[in-house]
Amino acid sequence: MQHNWSRYVRWIIAFLIACTGVGLFFGEPVYGLTIGLLVYLWWTLAQAKRLYHWLGNPDGGDEAPQSVGLWGDMFDGLHKLHQNHLRTQDKLRAQINRVQESTNAMRDGVIMTDSRGAMEWWNGSAEHLLGFRRSSDQGQFIHNLIRNPAFKAYFDSRDYREPLELNSPARPHIHLQIQISLFGDDDRLIVAKDVTRLFQLEQMRRDFVGNVSHEMRTPLTVISGYLETLVDNADDLPPKWRRAINTMAQQSSRMEALITDLILLSKIETGEQTISDAVTDVKPMISQICHDAKALSGDQGHEFSINIGERHLLTGDQSQLRSAFSNLIFNAVKYTPAGGKITVTWNTDREGAHLSVKDTGIGIDPVHIPRLTERFYRADPSRHKETGGTGLGLAIVKHVLLNHDGRLEIRSHIGEGSEFICHFPRERLAERVPETGS
Ligand code: ADP
After folding, report:
1. Which of the chain's termini has less CB crowding within 10 Å, N or C?
2. Residue 303 — very low, low, confident or very high, per pLDDT cuts 50/70/90?
3. Per DSSP, what are the bridge partners of residue 110?
4. Ligand 1 pocket mutation, candidates 356, 365, 373, 394, criterion most atoms within 8 A of CB
């Protein structure tokens, strides 16, 4: 096109010279030139008008205007550009349609929102799982549609390492796992997965363990009772029976402890929603548990150090907290050789409240730490016969802390003792309850 430019300039000059020549023929070269310029101006304006109308509505179905010379080339160039643009647009639209079709085919709900939660796009499964309506929910804030404080807190937290589980607001029998990812300009991609089957299986497992433990408790109590009577009257028994009866009594009390812990764990697990919000004073509770732990230590001569800070009121279930704290403190006694030191500290800071149970005992190889709170997981399986533990203590601690929005931190190395720290959030700290009476 570039090389045509000088040709067009030459044509225009030739046209103007021709007009001047015609003018000269009639004795008025200036008129001839003026008329030539006016004709050229009129033609230019006519072409500009056609272009102007076409640009105003290039997709209106009209072909790009046709012309000759400079304007003809410009119209052709613009027509080509427009065609390229339409082709790219079609390609992009096809790609977007494909992405939307594939996300629509997904069984998981997918939702895109901006940083404040205004809904921008969602797929068909999100409509089914969460009850969104395409006609009315566009631009709505997602917290107004999923009215759940836990979801709002999760959305605002910006910490999406762990998913959130909740019941669908539209179909309460559907249990959803929600995972949020950040993308683009602080926007959110929300994926909602239907985990109802898994949830029901988990619930069945809990119920089964709870029911079996309950059913076993009564016959076991009877057996233990008779065994205890036999142990008490061991002198009347033939000597060859005495050892057998003693071992049976020991094992039945171990089974009783196991069943008590299983029932407790299943209660704590299922009681997640019905957690009491009574205020618990942890100071007398810790003192009492340490008193019992000294009795457990017996003549092993463990040295106890107890430090309890100023603020020691916590919102939560007293019996669950007692179970958790006593498991940690009794473990410290069980896994610390005679003469060792056990330090129990309760302190509060800007983050919340912290109970630390530190011992100078056998310690734990750090490879075991991530799995210690699993049921029946033992760092040193050969020792559990000695300690007589059920293997459920730390699982109980973990669930109690989950129920209280807390978490368990474990610091330990083989031979260097262990420290178990229960962290509770600030919101769990309570102000002093008013004295009753005067
Ligand atoms: P157990 O009834 O076996 O004590 P827990 O769930 O209470 O079960 O503890 C799980 C495992 O964690 C224990 O078997 C033990 O290996 C380890 N453990 C717990 N507390 C301590 C501790 N204070 N020092 C060393 N190891 C510990």
Report:
1. C
2. very high
3. 191
4. 394
The three-class DSSP label of residue 190 is: strand
419 and 288 co-located in one domain: yes
Query: Residues 231, 246: contact at Cβ < 8 Å?
Result: yes
Task: State pTM to two decimals.
Answer: 0.69
Say yes or no to pLDDT of 400 above 50: yes
Burial classification of residue 254, based on how many CB atoms lie within 10 Å of its CB (0-12 exposed, 13-18 middle, 19 or more buried)? middle
Tell me which of 325, 372, 382 to substitute to probe ligand 1's pocket, judged by most ligand atoms within 8 Å of the beta carbon: 372
Ligand 1 centroid – CA 404 distance (Å)? 22
Residues 172 and 128 in one domain: yes
pLDDT in tens, 169-193: 999 999 999 999 999 888 999 999 9
Range of the domain at 327: 278-428
Cα–Cα distance, 89 to 87 (Å, whole number) = 5
pLDDT digits 0-9 by tens, 202-258:
889 888 988 999 999 999 999 999 999 999 988 888 888 888 998 999 899 989 999
Please state the atom number of ligand 1 nearest to the C-alpha of residue 362: 25
Q: Are residues 266 and 363 in the same domain?
A: no
Q: If you take atom 16 of ligand 1, which residue's CA is the nearest one?
A: 379
Query: Which residues does a 6 A CB cutoff place in the pocket of ligand 1?
Result: 327, 331-332, 335, 359, 361-362, 364, 372, 378-380, 384, 387, 389-394, 418
The rounded Å distance from CA 331 to ligand 1 centre is 6
- For residue 407, the surrounding DSSP H or E stretch is strand 407-412
Q: Are residues 311 and 255 in the same domain?
A: no
Same domain for 311 and 409, yes or no, is: yes
